[in-house]
Amino acid sequence: MSRFEWQKSSFSEGHTEACVEVATGPGATRWMRESAEPEVVMGVSVGALGGLVRVVKGGGLGRGGG
Question: What sign results for the dihedral spanned by CA atoms 11, 5, 32, 26?
Fold first, then answer.
């Protein structure tokens, strides 16, 4: 997967040990990985990634089960 140009999440700034990285793939595929384990890569659709981002930004994955 090194053929992709990976971008770190803006929330990862200053935290280099556990960063989410995303790369664009062919068509509507985006690739995600954690910088601590770059060999583990997950392909997702644009829609699924957008849904995940909305949930995270809305605090839906925070503590307290929201």
Answer: positive
Q: Are 28 and 45 in contact (CB under 8 A)?
A: yes
Count of CB atoms situated within 10 Å of the CB of 11: 11
Q: Which stretches in the chain have pLDDT values below 70?
A: 1-2, 11-17, 62-66
- Phi and psi of 28, rounded to 5°? -100, 30
Give me the residue label for tokens 């200053």.
Answer: 14
Q: Which two tokens stand for residue 41?
A: 């890569």
CA end-to-end distance (rounded Å), the chain: 34
On whether the CB atoms of residues 54 and 38 are closer than 8 A, the answer is no
pLDDT number for residue 66: 44
- If we measure between CA atoms, which residue out of 56, 31, 61 comes closest to residue 45? 31
